[in-house]
Amino acid sequence: LEAKEEFSHKTLAMDAMRPRHSDPALTVLTQDSMTVEDVEAIVNETTFSGYPVVVSRESKRLVGFVLRRDLIISIENARKKQDGIVSSSVIYFTDHSPPLPPSSPSTLKLRSILDLSPFTVTDQTPMEIVVDIFRKLGLRQCLVTHNGKLLGIITKKDVLKHIAQMANQDPDSILFN
Ligand code: ADP
Asked: How confident is the model at residue 177 (pLDDT cuts 50, 70, 90)?
């Protein structure tokens, strides 16, 4: 994402973010209610580079962002080296283990791999500004919120695709290219 031409189209973050209207919902993790096997299933069924972590699916409050490769390594390690970690162990990204029945298996704390302040913009942010932020901060992805609730994600590739799409739709660029 080189800083060559200005991006001067009047599109907004919501125009470039995923999921699109017809797509399945964003794949998220909850901060303290998913088990090792729940998270393993998500990692195996999707190929995303990372997953937003939310307080709950209902609240959609953003807690942080976790990279897929860090999740895979940490769970693999815990299964091998940490006593009592099984498929039904609850994973938590919070400071303290959630309250669970006494008979529950050991819990797995993964707070150390959580990025607690991922970059976010609102859905109404002009893409001109988003492109600038990606360039200047060298972002890989940026999360999109609406009224404080997590709405979507924009990756560097999404930004590049959006720029290309806008350039193609521009009648001038069609005439002159
Ligand atoms: P890239 O855009 O470099 O291929 P990803 O593999 O992470 O990176 O993302 C692929 C596509 O899926 C992108 O369009 C992105 O916006 C979207 N995406 C990324 N993470 C998620 C997620 N957790 N849930 C739903 N869609 C996602």
From this structure: very low
145 lines ligand 1 (CB under 6 A): no
Is any ligand 1 atom within 6 A of the Cβ of residue 158?
A: yes
0.95 surpassed by complex ipTM: yes
Q: What predicted TM-score, i.e. pTM, was given to this entire model?
A: 0.93
Compute the distance from residue 47 Cα to the ligand 1 centre, in Å: 8
Separation of CA 103 and ligand 1 centre (Å): 38
Render pLDDT for 134-149 as a digit per residue (tens, 0 to 9).
999 999 999 999 999 9
* C-alpha span between 116 and 10 (Å, rounded): 31
pLDDT of residue 172: 59
Q: What is the number of residues in the chain?
A: 177
42 touches ligand 1 (CB under 6 Å): no
Distances (CA, A) of 170 to 20, 94, 121, 132, 175: 22, 47, 26, 20, 9
In contact, 29 and 56? CB cutoff 8 Å = no
In the three-class reduction of DSSP (H, G, I as helix; E, B as strand; rest coil), residue 5 is classed as coil
